[in-house]
Structure formats: structure tokens, C-alpha cells
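Reviewer 2 asked us to include a model.

Predict the structure of this chain.
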Amino acid sequence: MNLSATKNPSAPPVMRTRLLSPEMRARFERLDVDLKEGLVPAWVFGSDPELYALERERLFPRVWTFVGHESEIPSPGDHVLRYVGEDSFLFIRGGDGVIRLLFNACRHRGAQICAVERGNSKGFQCPYHGWTYSSTGELVAAPTQDEAMGGLDRSQWGLIAAPRLERYHGFYFACLDAKAPSLEAYLGHAAYYLDIFFGLFDDLEVVGVPQRYMWPTSWKAGFDGFGDDYHLITLHRSCSKSARSRFLMQRTSLATTSSRAVDTTSRSRSRQAMRRRCGAIPRRSQTGTRSTNWIRCRPTLRVVHGCWLAPSFQTFPI
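Predicted model (C-alpha cells):
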């Protein structure tokens, strides 16, 4: 008997095992009408267990998820734990220097092989039955292999790799659906903003560990808060006033003859720096939206946590 699996295993196809209840089906039918009218019903942002179960099965595995930046795992054997939905993965730079995203589960009975958030390891041993894997995901040892499971072909039973893993300006994104659109197609015009911020520099670095928060509500509530700029002018008005005041004070202290002269010099230096670092960058007008100029590019901040990365420069729109 030859116990074998797929060579270079990847995640199985996305499966649909849950059926919509009559109530949920009626909600989705009404949702189509609401969306055409420009409305999103409140229940979409609720904590309905049935809706969340559908999202775990049909949404999270099929979209591109940001998992990490290459600077987080600079050396062979470096690894951090990351998640796609609620599934745990090892974001790891193998001993061969290749970056991979490996499902954090032993191929034997599915026990997690890594319990630490970050570290450097030459291999991983399942705490249940002792199956041992290399940093590249290969199964290298199984206790009493010949006696317990004669015919096991270790080369066929490595850790499961995410079927899609793509890099963009040092950021790695994963998708568990092998048939999903490419990362470039998924990003669409949003790629412009990644190009503007992260295409300028090739030495961006993640500092510190991710900051994670837990709250008893839908994941969409947090996402909506971080992605919504409209509330800034009211809820965070004091921060906006403070930042504007500091900016105006800096402009005043730097002025030698007139603020116009300072702005002109700063604008020229910023554009020269952009050309030196990354060549020509498409303006927003090329994507069908309003063009924006940027002035004053200078080192200020170098920090990343979780899903956010701030580049080591500061810009001000005009």
C-alpha cells in the first residue's frame, strides 16, 4: 500500500456546505433591491451567527488577504502567525530563502504545529503524534513510520500551502481560491495608492508586533471605522486642528522670504526625490480621477503594525 497525497499540496477547492435559511435568502433578495437604490441595510453590519458562518465559508477564502511584509521575516527560518478568516497560517521564510504561507496544521490529524506568534525555527514538530516538518514545509520524519504506517511516502505529505501568494511592494497577499482573479485585478485602482506611498522607497521595514483588538461585534464594524474618513471632521476634529496648527507653525519657522518661496523649493525637492527613487509615477488623472500634487517629502516615521504600514516620509496635499 502506498500512502500518498498530492505533490506540493495546496488547499482544497472552496466548498459550499451551508444552505441559506428561508429568512436569510429573503434578506439577500431584498438586499439586491436596496443596493440598486444606494442603500445598505443595518443587518449587514450585525452579528448574526448565520451570516458570519456564510462569510467564513464563502467570503474569506475567496478574497485576497494581506498577511505580512517581507521585512518581518528577514532571515531563513523566521516565521510569524497570520490568519485568513479564523484559519491559522505560518508566514515563513524557509531555509531556502523562499517566502511561503503554510497552513498551521499537521497533515496527520490536523493539530497545530506552531503555537508561538513569531520566532525562528529550522523545523516544526506536531505535539500530538510527533510528525516533523522542515521550514520549507516538507515532512521529514514520522515516529515508527515503518511499523505504524508502512508505505508512507513522506515527500507527498508536506504542509498545505496557500494556493495563491503574491507580492506587491514587499507586501504579501494570499487567497485560498485558486480560481480567484489575480491580486492586480483585485486591487484595481487601489493599487495607485500603494504605488504612491510604497513605490518611493525600497527599504521599508516593519517595526514591532501587530496590535490586535477584540470586541464583541461584527468584524465589519472595525473595518468600517478604520476605512471611513468621513467621521474624522467631526469625531476627531481636535486631532485635525492640532495637526494643522503644527504644520502651519513649521511652515512659518522655515520661511525665509515668503511662504510661497518655501513651498516652491519644497515642491521641487519632493518631485526630484520621487523621480530618483521610483521614476515616473502615474498621476491620478490617468485613472480617471482628479490629479493631486504633493509637496514636502521628508523622513519622519517608520512603523508598521497589523494591517497598517506608515512609510518613512510625510507628505502634504495642495
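The chain is about 30% helix and 20% strand. The first helix runs from residue 22 to 36. We have added this to the supplementary material.
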